[in-house]
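Notebook entry, structure prediction.
Reason for the run: the old model in the group folder had no record of what sequence produced it. Starting over properly, with the input documented here first.
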Amino acid sequence: MKLELTAYLSILLLNNRRDCYKLLKLNSEYYKELSNFKFIDLFAGIGGFHLALSSFGAKCVFASEWDLYAQDVYEKNFHIKPYGDITKILEEDIPDHDILCAGFPCQPFSISGKQRGFKDTRGTLFFDILRIINFHKPKLILLENVSNFEKHDNGKTLLVVSESLKESGYSVFYKVLNASYFGLPQSRERIYFVCFNNKLKVNTFDFPVKDGEIKNLSDFLLPENQIDSRVFIQRTDISLKNYEEEIELFSCTGLKPIRLGSVNKGGQGERIYDPSGHAITLSANGGGIGAKTGLYLINGKIRKLLPRECSRIQGFPDDYIISENSSQAYKQFGNSVAVNVIQSILKKIIEIKCL
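New structure, fully documented this time:
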């Protein structure tokens, strides 16, 4: 018997009320193109995949996320309470669906972790995705992980995943993409998998190269009167480089963070950046005063980003409900998929008219 789902309130309103920040705006050729499709959201986090798929009209019929804080935020925004531990959910109890999406745990493969891969119990969760795929045989599979996944264990991890998906009856395509080229001011490289059921006879797939206008971080910042004073950094061990005001730092440096100085000559998390460039990669982990968001010289003051600003540079709209626990909010956006990149990939899928 299927798991009883919480009543679903349509997310098609996204296209009407969520244009402020920062979903890609879709032309009429894409609007509602997936309105006849159902998807499931595994390792759902706070719903980055959900936002992207819903913007094309697709309907979520099942979500799974073990973290209770993320579950709460997901339910508040989408009116679906995700089920917990996917290892305890039988594949036959999951509703039928056309699309499976999963940002499966990245810690086993991340360069910031121990890179244990499939030796880590979190790494084996890929095989829970696989058992669901083998039972339901969805038309389309969308997966996301850290860019290091491609090189982990000298490529053996990538080979295991891609060959397993091929053996399950899918054509497999993957590419590392940077959110910087998709209308978001964040240097965030991730590997994306697009897998088509062999019945669709898709032999080639070209990932998008870029989509949306190139932005810098300053375009996404909250006004000064909305800044919580707790994000400001006031210390005596701050050192800054001297730049003349007329230098256009962003155009000179390109799509990356622009370093201005440091706090206590620390590592990556203690560097100070200029908002004329891009933000560093948001992180769910790490210590230091600016480790999760980076530190920026904004209006003559040094501060880290607020959760709402992190939300914006991940492609979430301003009416998205954020956790009231700021520590959890930083963690959740650090773990999230960049919504705009998924939207752009979906546009490419729609364009080849294979579904």
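Summary: The first strand starts at residue 38 and ends at 42.
The old model has been moved to the deprecated folder.
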